[in-house]
Amino acid sequence: MADAPTRQDADDGFQPLTQAAGGTAFGFTDDVTVAADGRVFFTDASSRWSQAAYKTAILEHAGDGRLLVYDPADRQTRVLLDGLQFANGVALSQDERFVLVNETSAYRVRRYWLAGPKEGQDEIVIDGLPGFPDGISRAPGADRYWIALFAPRNALLDFAADKPYLRRLTWRLPEALQPKAAHVAHVLAIDGQGQVLVNRLDAADSAYAPVTSVVQDRDELVLGSLEQRAIGRVNAATAR
To answer: Would you say residue 39 has pLDDT above 80?
Structure first.
C-alpha cells in the first residue's frame, strides 16, 4: 500500500503532489507505478474508508475505488476509472500502452488502454480469480504479470456479493464473528491476454501468508505481507 504521490523539497521536506481528483479527496491511496515520462499511476481503493478500515471497505462492496494518474507536466490529477471494487495493485505494460489494475473484492484484473485504437477504453483481463488480488507487478522485460492473492475466496462473501443487506449485516458483526481469511500463500502469473502462466499455492501452516505483494527480481520472486515480519523469497523458475 502506498501514500498519495509526494515530492521532496530541500527546504520543506516531503510535500503532497495531489490530494484529490474530480472533486473527491483520496480516502485510501493504495498502489503506485511510474511511467517513463514521469506520470504517476495510482489507485484509491476507497474514497470513503481509510487503510485501517480495509475490511469494512471490502465488506461494504460500494464500488468507490478509482484508478488515477498524476501528470507532473501540468500538475493535474485525472480519474481514469471509477466505480471500481476496492482498486488495489497497478502495473504498466512494457510498452506502456495499457495499465492493469486489480479489483480486490471483485476477484478480477481490469485493463485501461493508454494508447492505440482502444485508447481511453477499459476491459476485464481476467475474472473469477480464486482469491482476493492484492499487488500486481510486471516481470522485467516480459509480457508477464505477477499477482499476489491475499486470501482464498470466501463462500459467505460470494453469496452476499449481490445482497447489500447481507453485506451490511456481516459488516456489523463483532470482529470475532466476521469471516476470517484462510492462511494460504498464493501467487499467479498471467500474460497480457489474461492467460494463467503460473499458479503457485502453499496452504501449509508454515506458509508465508498472506501474500500482499510480489515482484520478480532476476530469478527470484520477492514477497511482501501485511502480517509477516520478514520479506519472503522464492525461486521464480520453480514457481509452477
So the answer is: yes
